[in-house]
């Protein structure tokens, strides 16, 4: 057994992992290693106004707004998938979208800037 200390979102956990013997023979159907992900393109600079940030890490499934678009409080801005659930990220106030910093398929961390509203 190997012991590790892991920090997950600021909480410290101690875990034990059992080492297992390697299989004697790998089958041809064994899954191949995933290819390395291409580096993400740098997002456009944030616009002026209130920042709308990701409440949790996940993947952007859809971006419902674009820069210059007017929105009302509660309008869906982005759909964020986290833990196999779709989460609608809504406008916190009426205004105009001054910047969109994510694209469909982007992976984001907690507090990543999604868009700005002025």
Automatic annotation (TrEMBL):
Every Lipoyl-binding domain range: 39-118
Signal peptide from the UniProt entry: none
Gene3D superfamilies, sorted: 2.40.50.100
Pfam families named in the record: Biotin_lipoyl
CDD domains (alphabetical): biotinyl_domain
InterPro entries listed in its UniProt record: Biotin_BS, Biotin_Carboxyl_Carrier/Decarb, Biotin_lipoyl, Single_hybrid_motif
Keywords, comma-separated and alphabetical: Biotin
Protein name, UniProt field: Acetyl-CoA carboxylase biotin carboxyl carrier protein subunit
Species for this entry: Faecousia intestinalis
